[in-house]
DNA sequence: CCCTAAATTGCAAACCTGTGCATTTGAGCA
DNA sequence: TGCTCAAATGCACAGGTTTGCAATTTAGGG
């Protein structure tokens, strides 16, 4: 039919509008340099002909690419250390907020990231900034990244050194809330279940123990999975002749593992022992008996992470910020 | 320090290697045109100086961008219709396989997709192909996409018309497996719980009913959430004076809703009524009592989806393919 | 030693846009 | 009218890579 199957370009719009190509470029960017009505006319023509700018060329010319990489540790993959539905929810909120801000979301699993230096990814894939999810225990690498001027934010625990910007929930406060709740319930001997090498969990424990007045046991588990917390609790119960009357688990997934172990031992919940989780992830609602938990506001988290990252990209420096946590009481 | 802070480019490598820029370009692509030892030398120099090609420029020049969009319906977002941890697992596997194939993963939530025509996204964001996850009931749009020559694959139910390529699990077979299991258990009256406007669920039901010889009730629910299946079952039990002795729920999430309802009514599981889910998602393992379910192999799914999409992008046409499903028996 | 083909390499155009600067246009004013 | 000034637009180049084609070098055969 037509002379060439070539997709429509900026030159074509320029010709149709009877102006030069640069004018079209400026018009589409909303530059104040170009006359209002010309601008409007050009826009109308572009729209009618279904023209959209070529991102590759645009990216090449500007240095900014409008691409944010989200690095996440996927569950159910061989080398995954952290696996929790909570991260999925967070990912959804971040993705939406990035879309609102006109940013593309480049999804990376930690596995693929570890294979090549992150800096490479930046320039190679044209990534403007990075959001790390669930990267506990990588402070070294992250600090090095920050020193190299890579713009990024992290979801996680508040860092000791303020080398980079972290957004997280107020884990310490969350832990205190749980302690208060246990106290209200009249419990006297508590146990915390969680890995001892995980920053967020450590803070939750620290908050809890600062508030808790009764007996306190800490049960360290090797990872945050359902299985390992279940096994750990079973083993503990086997080797002791008493049991705590309240257990605070570092996450909902772990809490359910704890519940499973308690039930297996014939304890009745919550009369013999009450259990509290963390995250307010779907499983804590669906589980029966449903679980009292500490909610982290993932929607606010997504918005805040994105906002801070954008500012960091602009060159501003941003303080870390911990979101308010909230106790969700459910029958247990 | 140095003259310019300009990032290292192909010209620099060329100068260092004492060759021209095009030669470097070809060497890095592994072109057979360039001498083996020259190639090796150039590669070594590039590596040593940490040079990586500028993707924007590369994309501009080639027409291919090596970017695959994954469109997913995130849970816990306002307009989300489908929300299941199962999709998270699938996403992880797809993401990994795409990384293996050297493709970037552009993550899109359905919300942002619906706001602008998909075709725009393609050229604007430089997307080479799309993978749709959980897009049941969009056949119209998808067919139109296919007719416009957009390369994409879908995870979901086998389509009536073979206009585009779908990968999914063999839902019908999955349903049959459940029916067999119920029969083995000596159950006589069954109920299927699931929405009646969801293709995959319909097939699961169809498979089930083709194999099931006993009494059969179909309980239609409005969406696939925990809440609505729980409510539906409660309501049903209230308005009937008997109950089935086996329930097949369209997904694990729904199965847990069903369990919750049954327990609320004081039925004991599995003696009064056995329940079976679908997906083998984490919650089915963690739940207590843990749930018999039908497993879909998400790892194979990811690999297959990606492989087919790549071929479609190359221009080949691909048949839809349903993966084998497998019954996972757990105490219930 | 000359000729031809193959193996390498370099030249220059092309991909599509953004932007500094010069140029044109038109208005306002003495 | 002649001048200045601001607004609007166009020119031309830059950005980093790929690739068709020409040019050069090398090897092999007569």
Q: Please tally the β strands of chain A and state the result.
A: 12
Find the CATH topology of the largest domain in chain A: Rossmann fold
SS field, number of helical segments of chain A = 14
Taking all Cα atoms into account, the compactness measure Rg of chain A is 26 Å
Q: Which structural class fits the helix and strand makeup of chain A?
A: alpha/beta
What strand line-up does the widest sheet of chain A have?
Answer: 2-1-3-4-5-11
Task: Report the CATH C-level class of the largest domain in chain A.
Answer: Alpha Beta
CATH architecture of the largest domain in chain A: 3-Layer(aba) Sandwich
Oligomer: homodimer
Pair with the most extensive interface? A-B, 53 and 52 residues
Domain HTH lacI-type (chains A, B): 8-62
Protein name (chains A, B): LacI family transcriptional regulator
Pfam families (chains A, B): LacI, Peripla_BP_3
Notes on the structure:
Chains A, B: Pfam families: LacI, Peripla_BP_3. 2 copies of one chain form a homodimer. By secondary structure, chain A is α/β, with parallel strands linked by helices. Chain A is 45% helix and 17% strand. Chain A has helices at 10-17, 21-29, 36-48, 55-61, 85-100, 110-115, 118-125, 139-147, 171-184, 199-211, 226-238, 252-264, 282-286, 298-314; strands spanning 67-72, 104-109, 129-133, 152-155, 165-169, 189-194, 215-220, 246-249, 274-276, 293-296, 321-323, 325-328. A 6-stranded parallel β-sheet of chain A has the order 2-1-3-4-5-11. A 4-stranded parallel β-sheet of chain A has the order 7-6-8-9, sandwiched between helices. In chain A, helix 1 crosses helix 2 (21-29), helix 2 crosses helix 3 (36-48) and helix 5 (85-100) crosses helix 14 (298-314). The first copy, chain A, is elongated and about 90 Å long. Chain A starts with 9 loop residues before the first helix and ends with a strand. The model of chain A is unreliable at 77-82 (pLDDT under 50). Chains A and B meet through helix 4, helix 5, strand 2, helix 7 and helix 12 of A and helix 4, helix 5, strand 2, helix 7 and helix 12 of B. Chain A binds a DNA duplex (30 and 30 nucleotides) through helix 2 and helix 4.
């Amino acid at each position: 039919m037509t002379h060439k199957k070539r997709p429509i370009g900026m030159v074509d719009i320029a010709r149709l509008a009877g102006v030069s190509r640069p004018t079209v470029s400026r018009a589409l960017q909303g530059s104040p340099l170009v006359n209002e009505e010309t601008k409007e006319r050009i826009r109308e023509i572009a729209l009618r002909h279904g023209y959209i700018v070529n991102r590759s060329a645009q990216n090449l010319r500007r240095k900014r690419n409008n691409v944010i990489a989200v690095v996440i540790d996927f569950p159910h993959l061989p080398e995954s250390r952290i696996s929790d539905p909570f991260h999925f929810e967070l990912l959804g909120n971040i993705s939406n907020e990035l879309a609102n801000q006109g940013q593309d979301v480049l999804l990376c699993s930690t596995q693929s990231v570890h294979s090549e230096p992150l800096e490479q990814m930046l320039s190679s894939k044209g990534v403007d900034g990075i959001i790390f999810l669930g990267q506990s225990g990588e402070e070294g690498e992250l600090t090095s990244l920050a020193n190299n001027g890579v713009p990024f934010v992290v979801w996680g625990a508040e860092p000791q050194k303020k080398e980079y910007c972290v957004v997280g929930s107020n884990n310490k406060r969350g832990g205190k809330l749980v302690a208060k709740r246990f106290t209200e319930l009249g419990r006297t001997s508590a146990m915390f279940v969680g890995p001892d090498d995980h920053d967020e969990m450590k803070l939750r424990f620290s908050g809890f123990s600062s508030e808790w007045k009764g007996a306190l046991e800490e049960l360290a588990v090797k990872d945050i999975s359902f299985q390992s917390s279940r096994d750990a609790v079973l083993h503990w119960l086997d080797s002791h002749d008493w049991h705590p009357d309240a257990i605070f688990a570092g996450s909902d997934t772990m809490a359910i593992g704890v519940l499973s172990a308690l039930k297996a031992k014939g304890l009745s919940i919550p009369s013999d022992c009450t259990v509290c989780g963390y995250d307010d992830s779907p499983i804590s609602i669906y589980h029966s008996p449903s679980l009292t938990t500490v909610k982290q506001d993932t929607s606010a988290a997504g918005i805040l992470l994105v906002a801070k990252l954008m500012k960091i990209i602009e060159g501003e420096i941003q303080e870390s910020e911990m979101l308010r946590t909230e106790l969700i009481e459910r029958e247990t």
